[in-house]
Amino acid sequence: MFVFRYRFVGYRLLFCCLLAAASLPSLAAGPVRVxxxxxxSNMEGQGAISALDxxxxxxxxxxxxxxxxxxxxxxxxxxxxxxxxxxxxxxEIQADNATFGDPAPNVRKQLQVECLVNGKRQTLTxxxxxxxxxPGDSNAVTIERAWYxxxxxxxxxxxxxxxxxxxxxxxxxxxxxxxxxxxVWFNGRKGxxxxxxxxxxxxxxxxxxxGQALGASISDPILIIKTAWGGKSLFxxxxxxxxxxxxxxxxxxxxxxxxKVMADLSTEFPELSGRKCELAGLVWWQxxxxxxxxxxxxxxxxxxxxxxxxxxxxxx
Length: 316
Known about the structure:
The radius of gyration is 23 Å and the shape is globular. It is α+β, with helices and mostly antiparallel strands and 316 residues long. It starts with 13 loop residues before the first strand and ends with a helix. It has helices at residues 41-44, 63-68, 73-76, 97-100, 160-170, 207-217, 249-263, 265-268, 296-314, and strands at residues 14-18, 32-39, 47-48, 90-94, 110-117, 120-127, 131-135, 141-149, 156-158, 182-186, 189-192, 203-204, 222-228, 277-286.
């Protein structure tokens, strides 16, 4: 179980492997095998890499918590880089109500930290929903006082101990490995597969486990292209041409994105320059937003069949 940014009540979350064969042989050398991961917010990836409570403890269900629990550690071990030093280069603390409470409701609050940095007294601030950054060297920083609220004169709360605990926990964060032959492209972010290719850089999604499984069975270079957007329906947003009516903008964007990334492979991924691309499969995870539009539910099966057929044609 993972910690998600949002709570989901599943209606018809479909996870279908389309276009791909049931199993693919492992080859010593060959083209770049391209897999498309498409859908809505679950496919974007809402799994938290790390989330600390107000006591500076890791919340259950995060990737860090799984890596720390002996029962689940084997699932995460392939991604933990034990060769890197555990000292953080910098410490980032999110200024938000989930961490510090809400001493001033309906006001955009501020986190203020008075500290010594390399012997020099400084006052650092971050607005609510922004990040306050400290040096990672524990010998360089001493937290003296910290406040959160409607600063300077409105309601506020002293949070010195919370900031100290968060800073101490961040100093020893886990470092993650990157895959040696699986790459990811998602919404302009690109690189070797590692935690952080979810809806935000602090989140992960299905690409992590899917890419790990593919990498273990296929020796060719693998490219995962994610084309996922939250809150989209198959009935309208991803509506395929074969279903009639106006083609969904996200269907068009899916096709355009895959074609462009594959065509610009040498620019997007210089390590793969000179190799041919082979579109090997597509994973579809979507369904929530088709529970609501009138007529969407009875059309879903037909729209999904059309989606598969049209993508096979449009992506050649």
